[in-house]
Amino acid sequence: MRSPAALGYIRREESGTRRPWDETEIRRAATDLGYSLIKIVVFGNDTDHPAMRLRNVARNMTRVHGVQISAVLTPNLEHLDGDTAPVVEWCEEVVTVANGASYSRHRSDAIA
Q1: 8 Å CB contact between 77 and 96
Q2: Pairing between strand 107-111 and 101-104?
Q3: What value does the mean pLDDT take over residues 25-47?
Q4: How much is the mean pLDDT over the chain?
Q5: The predicted structure's pLDDT at residue 110
Q6: CA–CA distances in Å: residue 82 to residues 44, 56, 76, 89
Q7: Nearest CA to 70 among 28, 105, 42?
């Protein structure tokens, strides 16, 4: 049985010099939570509509590779501009790896 698939997500300016650490923590969290990390997506502040573009990456994974994305792992909510709603519309959960909180489409508050 295949592990559920996840994307990592980082905003370049939010991570700054911590980006290698954030990427390592996303990989660790994916392993610990039983996800198969497909890729880590990095957008900068110059990326317009980042939540929509992240959804497009996930759709492309499904269309081209047959992989359904179940979760997005991100260092903290600031990488999502503090709002998980646009992401949990198309995946099961968002996990903030810094504090281990999980936000799902079935719950609007974090589960730590």
Answers
A1: yes
A2: antiparallel
A3: 97
A4: 92
A5: 52
A6: 16, 20, 8, 15
A7: 105
DSSP state of 90: T
Question: Which residue's entry shows tokens 């996990």?
Answer: 95
For the record, the structure tokens of 8 come out as: 């990592």
Residues near 16 by beta carbon (within 8 Å), at least 6 away in sequence: none
For residue 31 the two structure tokens come to: 């392993």
Tokens 């994974």 locate to 61
Can you give the pTM of this predicted structure?
0.91
Q: Of 75, 88, 94, which Cα lies nearest the Cα of 12?
A: 75
What's the pLDDT score for residue 12?
Answer: 97
Cα gap 108→79, rounded to integer Å: 18
| CB atoms near residue 25 (< 10 Å) | 16
CA 57, 101, 31, 2 dihedral sign is: negative
- Tokens 């792992």 correspond to 73
Report the Cα 64 to chain-centroid distance in Å.
19
